[in-house]
TrEMBL record:
A single GO cellular-component term on record: plasma membrane
Lineage: Bacteria, Bacillati, Actinomycetota, Actinomycetes, Micromonosporales
Name assigned to this protein: ABC transporter ATP-binding protein
ABC transmembrane type-1 domain mapped to chain residues: 32-313
Native species: Dactylosporangium sucinum
Record's keyword terms, sorted: ATP-binding, Membrane, Nucleotide-binding, Transmembrane, Transmembrane helix
Membrane topology: Multi-pass membrane protein
Cited SMART domains: AAA (SM00382)
Length: 563
C-alpha cells in the first residue's frame, strides 16, 4: 500500500508564522499599513503618563501656562489615540479576514482534489474540525484579539523606552522587582499551556469525529441494537475532552500570580521614587509618570498573558490547519494531456487498501477507443476497485493506468475528470432539486443543457414524470430516488461532460424493470464514439456485452470471447 501522509494529533508548532507566510505574503501591504496605524495609536497612549508627570511638575513650579499646555497635549493625544485605534482595528480586521477567507477557500479546494486514499485514512470529524472550526476560531482571533495583541506588544516596547529615558534608577528598580518573577510565571504558563491546549484541541476533534460517525451509522446502530454501547464510546470521548479542558483551565491559573508581583512593584516604586525625589535625583513628576506608566504596564502584561493564551490556542489551530494544507498540497506538475482516441490501459496494476492485503495483483488489460466492454467477477473480486483505478480516482500502488499513453497519475485533475467519468453503484447526491444536482458538473451547465442531455439519453419522459421535473426535490442526499434512478442522474451528468471513457458500476440493488431498461437505453445512446466499461453484476448485462474481462481474487481470470 502506498504511504498516506497521516495528520498528527499534535501539530508541528515550530515556525508557524514562517509556514503561514506564503498565505500572508499576498496581503503584506494592507497588513503592514494596519500594524503601522496600530503602533501609532499605541505611541499616543504611551506618551499620556509622561505628559501627566510634566503637568505635575509645572503645577509644583506654579507654572500656569505650562500646566495648561500639558493638559491640552494630553487631551489631543487621547483624541488622536481613539481615532487611530479605530482606524487600525478596521484595517487589521479587513486584512486578517482576507487572509482567513483565502485560507478557507484553499482548504476546501485542497480537500476537493486530494487523493481519496488520504480522506479515507482520516476520521471525517478531524478533517471537519481542521477545515471549519479551526478556520472559524482563527477568524475570531483576528477580529477580536489580534489588534489588542499588536497594541500590547507595541505598548510594552514604547513604555520601556519612555521610562528608561526618564530615570534609569527607577527603571532599574522596576526591572529588578518586576521582570524576573513575571518571566518565571510566563515560562511556567507557557510550558503548561503548550501541552494542555493541543491535547484539548485533539480531544475536541475526537468528540466531533465520534459524533459525526454516529450520525452516519445511526440506522445500522439502531438495527444492531448497538446504540447503548456506542453511547458508552461517546461518553468516554466526552470524559476525555472534559479532563483535557480542565487541564487547560489549570494551566491558565498560573496567570493569577501576576497580581502579587504587581503589588510588590508599585510599593517598591513609591518607596524608591520617594527617596530619589527627596534627594533631588528625580522630580515628583517623574515618580508620578513611573507609577502611572507601571500601572498601565501591569494591566498590559495582564491583558498580554490572557491574549497570549488565546494566541497559543490560535497558533495550535493554525498549525493544525497548515499541517492539513501541507498534507494535501498538489504533487508533481501536470503532464501534457494525451491526444484523444488511444484507449485506456492498465499495466501490471496492484492495489491494497490495507498494508499487506492487496486486493488487485498485476492486472494488465487494454480497452480500445470506442470499445464497449464489461468487467465481471464474484463479489469482492476487485471489480469496483479496478474501476476506481481505471478512472484515476485512486492511484495504483504498483503499475500504471494510461489514457492514450499518458499516466493518469500525472494528468491535471480537471482534465482527468473531463475525460474519464465513473458512475458508481451508489451515486451520491446532495440535498436539493434535480437541477441542483445536475449543476454539480464542470462548465456551469444551465437548464438548456439539462434538457438537451435528457433528450439525448431519452430521459425527457422520466424527468417530466418527477413531481416538479428538474425542480423536483430529491430529499436529503437524494434519498427520494432509488439506486437505479440515482444512476440516471449520474448518466445525465456524464452526458453533459461528454467524456472519452465512461465507466458504469452497475447498481447491485434490485432495479425495477423500467429503471433497468432506462439505464440500458441511456447507456446505448451514450456509447457513440466513446469507450464504455460496465462493471457488470447481473448475468443479463454480462450476456449482452461484446467483451467481458473476468476477475478472480484480484487477478484477471479470463477474457470471454467477443460475441
Ligand atoms: N474502502 C475500502 N477499504 C478497505 N477494503 C476495501 C474497501 N473497498 C473495498 N475493499 C475490499 O477490497 C476487496 C475488493 O472490493 P471491491 O469492492 O473492489 O470488489 P467488487 O468485486 O466490486 O465487489 P462487489 O461485487 O461486492 O461490489 C474486498 O475484499 C473489499 O472488502
Amino acid at each position: 500500500m502506498a504511504d498516506v501522509r497521516m495528520l498528527s494529533e499534535e501539530p508541528d508548532q515550530r515556525r508557524v508564522l514562517r509556514r503561514a507566510w506564503p498565505h500572508l505574503r499576498p496581503h503584506r501591504g494592507p497588513i503592514a499599513a494596519a500594524v503601522a496605524v496600530n503602533l501609532l495609536s499605541t505611541l499616543a497612549l504611551t506618551l499620556v503618563p509622561v505628559l501627566i508627570g510634566r503637568a505635575v511638575d509645572r503645577l509644583l513650579d506654579h507654572d500656569r501656562d505650562g500646566l495648561l499646555g500639558a493638559a491640552g497635549a494630553v487631551l489631543a493625544l487621547v483624541v488622536a489615540r481613539m481615532l487611530l485605534l479605530r482606524a487600525s482595528e478596521v484595517l487589521l480586521t479587513r486584512a486578517g479576514e482576507r487572509v482567513v477567507h483565502d485560507l478557507r477557500d484553499l482548504v476546501v479546494q485542497r480537500l476537493g482534489s486530494t487523493p481519496l486514499r488520504f480522506l479515507e485514512a482520516h476520521r471525517g470529524g478531524d478533517l471537519l474540525q481542521r477545515s471549519t472550526v479551526e478556520v472559524a476560531e482563527l477568524a475570531t482571533f483576528v477580529r477580536s484579539q489580534l489588534p489588542d495583541l499588536i497594541s500590547l506588544g507595541g505598548y510594552l516596547v514604547f513604555t520601556t523606552i519612555v521610562l528608561v529615558s526618564s530615570s534609569w534608577q527607577l527603571s532599574a528598580l522596576l526591572f529588578v522587582v518586576f521582570a524576573p518573577p513575571m518571566w518565571l510565571l510566563a515560562r511556567v504558563f507557557r510550558r503548561a499551556a503548550g501541552r494542555a491546549y493541543p491535547a484539548e484541541a485533539a480531544a475536541q476533534a475526537t468528540v466531533a469525529a465520534t459524533f459525526a460517525e454516529s450520525l452516519q451509522a445511526r440506522e445500522q446502530l439502531q438495527l444492531d441494537g448497538a446504540t447503548g454501547r456506542w453511547l458508552d464510546r461517546l461518553r468516554a470521548d466526552a470524559d476525555g475532552y472534559h479532563a483535557a479542558a480542565r487541564t487547560a483551565q489549570r494551566a491558565a491559573t498560573w496567570i493569577d500570580g501576576t497580581w502579587i508581583v504587581q503589588g510588590l512593584t508599585t510599593a517598591a516604586l513609591l518607596v524608591g521614587g520617594g527617596l530619589l525625589a527627596g534627594a533631588d535625583v528625580v522630580t515628583v513628576g517623574v515618580v508620578v509618570t513611573f507609577v502611572l506608566a507601571s500601572r498601565d504596564l501591569f494591566s498590559s502584561v495582564d491583558d498580554f498573558t490572557l491574549v497570549a493564551g488565546e494566541l497559543l490556542e490560535s497558533r495550535t489551530g493554525l498549525a493544525r490547519l497548515l499541517d492539513l494544507l501541507d498534507a494535501t498540497a498538489p504533487g508533481r506538475p501536470a503532464a501534457e494531456p494525451p491526444a484523444p482516441g488511444s484507449g485506456l490501459t492498465a499495466e501490471g496494476v496492484g492495489y491494497a487498501y490495507r498494508s499487506g492485503r492487496p486486493v488487485l495483483h498485476d492486472v494488465t488489460v487494454h480497452f480500445g477507443p470506442g470499445e464497449h466492454a464489461g468487467i465481471a467477477g464474484e463479489t469482492g473480486s476487485g471489480k469496483t476497485t479496478l474501476a476506481k483505478l481505471l478512472c484515476g480516482l485512486y492511484s495504483p500502488d504498483t503499475g500504471t493506468v494510461r489514457l492514450g499513453g499518458a499516466d493518469l497519475a500525472a494528468l491535471d485533475p480537471g482534465e482527468l475528470r473531463r475525460r474519464l467519468v465513473l458512475i458508481p453503484q451508489q451515486v451520491h447526491l446532495v440535498g436539493g432539486t434535480l437541477a441542483d444536482n445536475l449543476a454539480l458538473t464542470p462548465g456551469r451547465p444551465g437548464r438548456d443543457d439539462f434538457a438537451r442531455a435528457a433528450d439525448r439519453l431519452g430521459l425527457t419522459g422520466w424527468v417530466a414524470g418527477l413531481p416538479g421535473g428538474f425542480d423536483a426535490d430529491l430529499g436529503r442526499r437524494g434519498e427520494r430516488l432509488s439506486a437505479g434512478e440515482r444512476q440516471l442522474v449520474g448518466l445525465l451528468r456524464a452526458a453533459m461532460i461528454d467524456p472519452e471513457v465512461l465507466l458504469l458500476d452497475e447498481a447491485t440493488a434490485d432495479l425495477d424493470p423500467a429503471t433497468a431498461h432506462r439505464i440500458e437505453a441511456a447507456l446505448a445512446r451514450l456509447r457513440a464514439d466513446r469507450t464504455v466499461l460496465v462493471i457488470a453484476h447481473r448475468q443479463t448485462t454480462i450476456d449482452r456485452l461484446p467483451r467481458v474481462v473476468r476477475l478472480r481474487a484480484g487477478r484477471i481470470a479470463q477474457e470471454e470471447p467477443c460475441r
